C-alpha cells in the first residue's frame, strides 16, 4: 500500500471515531470516565470475540443514522454523557446496541450512513437502525427506511461482497422494534381505539423480516419484545409520571404473546434455535418496580419521570426557539433518571436494563 492510501485509511478511521463518538482501547469501548461508574461497566464486558454485530430497527438501537435535519438528537443535550456531544443517539449516552456490542467484546458497529468512510470499522459489523422507524411506514415528518428497506441495504452490501457468508454465520443480529408503528397509529387516530387489530399485522411483518435475515445466512438473531409503552413518560405524563397506563401495557402484552408464538414457530421450522427474544418488557418493569436497585444501579428516584422535557407541550427535549434559547428543562442528576426523554432511557437506564438482560444475552454467544 502506498503512503497516500495508508494516510487516507488512517484519516478515515480517525474521522469515523469522531463521528461515532467512540474511543478504542484494545478493541473494546473505552472505559467510562467521570460520573460513569466504570467499575460496574467493566465486569459486564465479555472478553474476546471476533463476531460481527448487525443491527436493524429504530431509535433504541440507532447510533447515528437518523437525518440531522429531522431530529433533535443531533442537538444538545443528547450525547451529553457520552460521547460528550450530540452524536445521533437517542439518549444522553450509550444505547442498547452499545451494550450488546460490549457483551460481545467488540466496538459498536458503524452506522450505515458512514459506510463509505469507515472501511477499517467494518470488522465490527454494521448498524442499519434509524430512529422513528417500524415495520411499516410511520411518521411523514421523519424520513427514513423501515426495517424491510434496512434489510435491502444489508442484502446489497452482501451482493457487493462488502460482507460474506462467513461474516453472517459467525455474527449476531439485533432487531429492535420499540413501537413506532403503534405510536404512529395513536398520533394519527387520536388514541389507541382499534389498535388491537394492527398488532397481528405488525408481528406478521416482523416475522417475515426475521425469516429474511435468517435466509441471508445469519445464525443468531435477537429480537426485542416490546417494552411497556404504558410506562414511558409519553404515557405517564397524564398522571404526573406517577403510574403506568394499563391499557397500553395490555396491548403490549398481546404483541409480545404473538411475537413469542412466532419466534417459537420460527425456531421449530429452522431447527437451529436461531431466534432469541430480548425481553424489554420484563427488564424495563424489573428496573422500574425496583427503582434500579436490584441491578446494582443508582436508585432511580422516580423511574417514570424523564430527565429532559420541553417546557410546554409545543416543545420537546433539545428544542430551541428562533433565537436559539432552550425550550427544555434538564434534570441535575442524569444518573438518577431512568428515562432521558419521553420515550428513551438514559445511559444509566440502559445499563440497568442491560444488567437485567444478562441471562438472555448469554444465549447469543
Automatic annotation (TrEMBL):
Keyword annotations of the record: Hydrolase, Lipid degradation, Lipid metabolism, Signal
Residues making up the signal peptide according to the UniProt record: 1-21
Pfam families with a match to the protein in the record: Lipase_GDSL (PF00657)
Entry's Gene Ontology molecular function annotations: hydrolase activity, acting on ester bonds
Record keyword Manganese present: no
Keyword Chloroplast belongs to the record: no
Transmembrane intervals: none
One Gene Ontology term from the biological process aspect of the record: lipid catabolic process
Family label: Belongs to the 'GDSL' lipolytic enzyme family.
This protein's name: SGNH hydrolase-type esterase domain-containing protein
Organism: Carpinus fangiana
Amino acid at each position: 500500500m502506498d503512503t497516500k492510501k495508508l494516510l487516507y485509511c488512517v484519516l478515515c478511521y480517525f474521522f469515523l471515531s469522531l463521528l461515532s463518538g467512540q474511543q478504542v482501547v484494545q478493541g473494546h469501548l473505552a472505559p467510562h470516565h467521570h460520573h460513569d461508574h466504570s467499575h460496574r461497566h467493566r465486569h459486564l464486558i465479555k472478553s474476546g470475540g471476533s463476531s460481527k454485530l448487525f443491527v436493524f430497527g429504530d431509535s433504541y438501537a440507532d447510533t447515528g443514522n437518523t437525518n440531522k435535519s429531522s431530529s433533535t438528537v443531533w442537538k444538545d443535550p443528547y450525547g451529553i454523557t457520552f460521547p460528550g456531544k450530540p452524536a445521533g443517539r437517542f439518549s444522553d449516552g450509550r444505547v442498547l446496541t452499545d451494550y450488546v456490542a460490549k457483551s460481545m467484546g467488540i466496538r459498536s458497529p458503524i452506522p450505515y450512513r458512514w459506510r463509505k468512510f469507515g472501511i477499517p470499522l467494518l470488522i465490527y459489523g454494521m448498524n442499519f437502525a434509524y430512529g422513528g422507524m417500524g415495520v411499516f411506514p410511520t411518521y411523514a415528518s421523519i424520513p427514513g427506511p423501515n426495517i424491510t428497506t434496512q434489510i435491502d441495504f444489508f442484502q446489497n452490501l452482501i451482493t457487493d461482497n462488502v460482507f460474506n457468508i462467513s461474516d453472517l454465520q459467525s455474527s449476531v443480529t439485533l432487531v429492535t422494534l420499540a413501537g413506532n408503528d403503534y405510536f404512529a397509529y395513536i398520533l394519527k387516530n387520536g388514541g389507541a381505539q382499534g389498535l388491537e387489530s394492527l398488532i397481528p399485522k405488525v408481528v406478521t411483518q416482523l416475522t417475515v423480516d426475521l425469516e429474511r435475515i435468517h435466509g441471508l445466512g445469519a445464525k443468531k438473531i435477537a429480537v426485542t419484545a416490546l417494552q411497556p409503552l404504558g410506562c414511558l413518560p409519553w404515557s405517564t405524563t397524564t398522571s404526573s409520571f406517577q403510574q403506568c397506563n394499563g391499557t397500553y401495557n395490555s396491548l403490549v402484552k398481546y404483541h409480545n404473546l404473538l411475537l413469542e408464538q412466532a419466534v417459537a414457530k420460527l425456531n421449530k421450522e429452522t431447527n437451529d434455535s436461531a431466534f432469541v427474544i430480548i425481553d424489554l418488557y420484563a427488564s424495563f418493569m424489573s428496573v422500574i418496580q425496583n427503582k434500579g436497585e436490584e441491578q446494582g444501579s443508582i436508585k432511580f428516584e422516580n423511574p417514570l419521570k424523564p430527565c429532559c422535557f420541553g417546557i410546554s407541550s409545543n416543545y420537546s427535549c433539545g428544542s430551541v426557539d428562533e433565537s436559539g434559547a432552550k425550550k427544555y428543562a434538564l434534570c441535575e442528576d442524569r444518573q438518577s433518571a431512568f428515562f432521558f426523554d419521553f420515550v428513551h432511557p438514559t445511559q444509566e437506564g440502559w445499563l440497568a436494563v442491560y444488567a437485567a438482560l444478562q441471562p438472555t444475552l448469554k444465549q447469543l454467544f
